[in-house]
Amino acid sequence: MKALTIAATGMKAQETNVNVISNNIANMRTTGYKSQRANFQDLLYQTLRRQGATTSDAGTQVPAGVQLGSGVRVVATPRNMTQGDPESTGNDKDIAIRGEGFFQITLPDGRTAYTRDGSFELDSTGTLVTADGYTVNPAITVPQNASDLSISNTGQVQAKIGNDTTATVLGQIELARFVNKNGLEPMGDNLFLETASSGAAQTGNPGDAGYGTLLQSYLESSNVESVSELSSLISAQRAYEMNSRIITAADEMSQTTSNLGK
């Protein structure tokens, strides 16, 4: 019976759906995490009677045909790129983005990655880096004798050097934008990579037209909504159970049919 294979595709799709939901819930406290959802698409149909087919010499037509579907599949897992709530940390090197844009990060192999996670620190040379030691691009170095580190909402980094009473500009943080943010490839570690689908990165300073602003001593929290995820989990579980019952019912019908000849 086709119902067996159709229900199997439904169970497989809901299993993927639960995996996506579980990953969202697991990352509820991940800085800058953007939740995902599973999008479904029906599979090919077998046409037994085509709608619009002529049924008589008088030209009468079939108003609705007969098509049998073959199941469902997960076609995409797009991300919800809405802003997460800013949370105060008290760390002067933490930065949250309010609005559009990603921080640019230089990877050890020279590639540029992008992130919304602004939990930065200084390495042994005073360079601003991520938690994994990757350099923020453009590179910003804070002298050892610097104090009163300040990062403006437009990305200008300043600090007082030694006994100076006035601040010195140390660098400028830039942001990158993409035409299609959902086209970015996640690589883990809160980082994304540019792809042909995302389009080329467009860089600019925070506060420029189309770019967000920065908030020092804050981090952007995950945008996962626990109530929504739990509701989706329950729905996925129910859908999985219903598909499993279809398999049970189809199996019982097959057994009944086979017993007719005994």
UniProtKB/TrEMBL annotation:
<dbReference type="InterPro" id="IPR012834">
    <property type="entry name" value="FlgG_G_neg"/>
</dbReference>
<feature type="domain" description="Flagellar hook protein FlgE/F/G-like D1">
    <location>
        <begin position="96"/>
        <end position="159"/>
    </location>
</feature>
<dbReference type="InterPro" id="IPR001444">
    <property type="entry name" value="Flag_bb_rod_N"/>
</dbReference>
<dbReference type="InterPro" id="IPR037925">
    <property type="entry name" value="FlgE/F/G-like"/>
</dbReference>
<dbReference type="Pfam" id="PF22692">
    <property type="entry name" value="LlgE_F_G_D1"/>
</dbReference>
<dbReference type="InterPro" id="IPR020013">
    <property type="entry name" value="Flagellar_FlgE/F/G"/>
</dbReference>
<dbReference type="InterPro" id="IPR053967">
    <property type="entry name" value="LlgE_F_G-like_D1"/>
</dbReference>
<keyword id="KW-0975">Bacterial flagellum</keyword>
<comment type="subunit">
    <text>The basal body constitutes a major portion of the flagellar organelle and consists of four rings (L,P,S, and M) mounted on a central rod. The rod consists of about 26 subunits of FlgG in the distal portion, and FlgB, FlgC and FlgF are thought to build up the proximal portion of the rod with about 6 subunits each.</text>
</comment>
<dbReference type="GO" id="GO:0071978">
    <property type="term" value="P:bacterial-type flagellum-dependent swarming motility"/>
</dbReference>
<keyword id="KW-0282">Flagellum</keyword>
<dbReference type="InterPro" id="IPR010930">
    <property type="entry name" value="Flg_bb/hook_C_dom"/>
</dbReference>
<dbReference type="Pfam" id="PF00460">
    <property type="entry name" value="Flg_bb_rod"/>
</dbReference>
<protein>
    <recommendedName>
        <fullName>Flagellar basal-body rod protein FlgG</fullName>
    </recommendedName>
</protein>
<dbReference type="InterPro" id="IPR019776">
    <property type="entry name" value="Flagellar_basal_body_rod_CS"/>
</dbReference>
<dbReference type="Pfam" id="PF06429">
    <property type="entry name" value="Flg_bbr_C"/>
</dbReference>
<dbReference type="GO" id="GO:0009426">
    <property type="term" value="C:bacterial-type flagellum basal body, distal rod"/>
</dbReference>
<keyword id="KW-0969">Cilium</keyword>
<comment type="similarity">
    <text>Belongs to the flagella basal body rod proteins family.</text>
</comment>
<keyword id="KW-0966">Cell projection</keyword>
<feature type="domain" description="Flagellar basal-body/hook protein C-terminal">
    <location>
        <begin position="216"/>
        <end position="260"/>
    </location>
</feature>
<feature type="domain" description="Flagellar basal body rod protein N-terminal">
    <location>
        <begin position="5"/>
        <end position="34"/>
    </location>
</feature>
